[in-house]
Amino acid sequence: MGAGVRNVGKVTTPPHPPRDSRDPQDASDGRDAPKRPARRSDPPPWRTEGTPGGDDDSRPAGGGGPGGNGSPGGNGGDSGDGGRAPRRVGWVRLALTALVVFLLTELLLSVFRTNPNTSITYTEFTHQLTAGHVTEIYAKGDSIQGKLRSPEPVPGNTDGHTYHEFSTLRPTWANDDLWGELQRQHVTVDAQPVVQERSTLVNLLISLAPMLVLVVIWLAVARRMGSALSGGAFGMGRKTPKPVQAENIRRTTFADVAGIDEVKGELTEVVDFLKNPGEYRSMGAKMPRGVLLTGPPGTGKTLLARALAGEAGVPFFSASASEFIEMIVGVGASRVRELFGEARKVAPSIIFIDEIDTIGRARGGNTMGGHDEREQTLNQILTEMDGFSGVEGVVVLAATNRADVLDKALLRPGRFDRTVTVSPPDRNGREAILRIHSRDVPLDDSVDLAQVAKTTPGMTGADLANLVNEAALLAVGRKLRKVRAREFSDALEKVQLGAARTMVMPDADRRRTAYHESGHALLGMLQPGADPVRKITIVPRGRALGVTLSTPENDRYAYTEEYLRGRIIGALGGMAAEQVVYGVITTGAENDLEQVTSIARGMAGRWGMSERVGRLTAIPSDAQTAYGLSSAPATLDAVDAEARRIVAECYEEACRKLVEYRPKLDALANALMEHETLDEEHAYEVADVPRGLNAPPPVPRTD
Fold this sequence. Notes:
This protein has about 700 residues and is of the alpha/beta class. The protein has helices at about 25, 90-110, 120-130, 180-185, 200-230, 260-275, 275-280, 300-310, 330-345, 375-385, 410, 425-435, 450-455, 460-475, 485-495, 505-525, 560-570, 575-580, 590-605, 620-625, 635-660, 660-675, 680-685, and strands spanning about 20, 45-50, 120, 135-140, 145-155, 160-170, 190, 290-295, 315-320, 350-355, 395-400, 420, 535, 545-550, 675-680.
């Protein structure tokens, strides 16, 4: 139920999300392209922009040029001889399988085939006819079928079985007056057989039906397995969809990217090389083979890659690294060869691989064996990038937010020559991003995008796009024609604090929540160098029963020990207020303690702010863990002890200040009980604290 801006994970990252402290639940390869394409049953696992061609359906979505195909190696890139060897279709095996199934079916039918009539002797037939028991017969040659008026016992059977329909054969030498006897007994002689027999064709179809079903299932399974291997069953059924045409879509350019001007400057040289390669080749310069974009999620790495391709006006192939991984080993390597082959056909071009850490993690770590699918795919990417001579005009862009876990062979010069860090935008960058995302949004005159940018430190381009969209959604819901400043304010609260909930709380719980949030806010106001308090509320939002929001006046890029201790003191303010006022500690401080623990452990074990642990990183990073590096148990014990000491000292300081300024704490709590929400100006007025008290001290220059 405190201010989320006090949540510090890493010092190098300055985001300030709101802290929700009181939890109601707690309270309760380089080969030439083939001349003969192989068809695909599925689209290739990448998307394209700006590939040349017209309406030729033989070109794949991978963007092959005229006469291009979706498989540079023949069978999904598996063969590198420039053509695809013909497959031997297993029709002999299929025919043998059909024959065996047919014989087995006939055998089963012969075993289970039943005859509804009973075969009797001609003597028995004449006996039943003379006795007047026969009511209907059908004769064909010497064969006779018939029905009795009522069931009769089967001759010679002592089990009591009876029969109603029968069949018999009349001897050719019989010299009885059968026709006369039939007339005397008034027996009906029918032209239709008593028991209808199936024709030979029907019997054949019935016997072949199971075999046909089995063959269909077999073909379906074979086709599915073939598709997984980038080929169809027997090489059949691979159709190639049409590529995305440049004139059918609006290409993204640098005009659609803002807030990362220094990154655009790094990539301008690549754009110029793709546009004017002759100038660089005349000086012996080669284009970078690969550019790695690193940075937190949402900073615009994918957008930047698309803008680079659009600015250069070249085909753009994009794929996620996870799309190359399949259950069958070798499929990912095949798809990598296919993707690079397609890019070479339409060079100059750009290949973009998103989340490359999925397949580019350091080898030799926690893997089940050394030849799994991920490692084979990575090896193929390394081989393909080594195959560039620098004149193909193919640039590989990759993006990741985990550059520390990538394999060193992937990062060496000659593969990814450049590593560009894409950081969250500063204040001016956020304003420029807001203007781009609000180009199609009607804004009211009251909207000041510069002020919105000032109140959104740490937000990335994706966060700002979401903020503009939320404000537009609120305006539509309120039946407005323009988006006002109020919609931006409410949208920012919704994004940072969570959606407001309607719930009935007892007055005792509301007052305790008010003191909890007042403790956070008052310590934030009094602590030197702390971020200003922007809003206090006891309206339940998200999972929290109350929220205190604090954001810095300017973007922060480095944190001092004093500032971090102030963050801990402010985060412990809610728990300290409950201790001072009520003498109890509740479960509502769970989120506060998570933030406190993260900051304290970082100070002791990662940022060298503990004399006992020393100036070293005792808490291993993911990259160190991947290589089996870790600290000694005694060092980790020292980190835990120092973290406890730091938290204990900060908690004691929080309680001391709240006791000293108890009247201000009571005033804030009473105002919250009355108004539920206090904005920045009202909060400082109620607490009677001057605004400049917590201004950060100047940091001396070191140069």
